[in-house]
User: Which sequence fits this backbone?
């Protein structure tokens, strides 16, 4: 089980809003804290790994269930 | 000599030094079409959220995106005509295809709501909040007789081609839309 400090439900939001809003939530966290982002936009699957690679945040885990994605991101 | 040097340095954009480490994205927004405005604002706000330093230069028809009102005073006859014919603001943009006298954009707005997609205002807000900078092109402004007061407050400055070139020179991504 991953310890989650914050959760952001982006279900229903369309590209690019999940990434933009998640970024804002991440700004409120401190380094090392983990946020769980839940999204159902099909683009999210590749967008969040790309987001993490660009920004340097750590994508610890990615789960997919019936078109719903769960991203566990640790703030750098 | 020293005075001149100081003068020149005060003209350079203030954020240059602090933003140097960030990758840059520079966009020329030439088109005033609704569909292309989606591309401009989506990419700008996303890049800024990905940690890039983003600026959009609005020129020609693209000025429609950042206009907040029509001001006829101080314009000559042709400039007045242009102002009346040009869309003014994100809400009034036309589609590049299937505009059908405004029916197309109307349908598009309904579709955006139905699919819960962000509209142009949402994207503009997102861009603004994530630190995207907005500039207007000086030559287009003077041809059309538009001054600073006709633009939304988010527009930082009216700048020329040289500013864009010097800003885009080392940009990782530069787009003309």
Assistant:
């Amino acid at each position: 089980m991953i310890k989650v400090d914050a959760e952001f439900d982006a279900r229903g939001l369309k590209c690019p809003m999940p990434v933009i809003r998640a970024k804002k939530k991440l700004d409120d966290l401190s380094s090392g804290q983990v946020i769980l982002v839940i999204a159902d936009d099909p683009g999210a699957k590749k967008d969040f790994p790309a987001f993490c690679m660009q920004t340097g945040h750590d994508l610890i885990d990615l789960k997919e269930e019936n078109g719903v994605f769960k991203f566990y991101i640790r703030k750098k | 000599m020293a005075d001149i040097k100081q003068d020149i340095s005060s003209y350079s954009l203030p954020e240059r030094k602090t933003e140097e480490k960030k990758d840059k994205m520079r966009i020329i927004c030439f088109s005033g079409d609704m569909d292309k405005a989606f591309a401009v604002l989506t990419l700008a706000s996303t890049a800024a959220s990905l940690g890039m330093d983003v600026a959009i230069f609005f020129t020609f028809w693209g000025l429609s995106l950042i206009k907040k009102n029509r001001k006829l005073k101080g314009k000559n006859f042709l400039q007045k005509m242009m102002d009346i014919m040009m869309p003014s603001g994100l809400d009034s943009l036309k589609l590049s295809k299937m505009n059908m006298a405004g029916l197309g954009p109307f349908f598009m707005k309904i579709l955006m709501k139905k699919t819960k997609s962000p509209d142009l205002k949402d994207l503009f807000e997102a861009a603004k909040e994530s630190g995207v900078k907005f500039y207007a092109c000086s030559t287009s402004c003077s041809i059309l007789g538009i001054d600073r007061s006709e633009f939304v407050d988010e527009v930082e400055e009216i700048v020329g081609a040289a500013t864009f070139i010097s800003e885009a020179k080392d940009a990782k991504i530069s787009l003309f839309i």
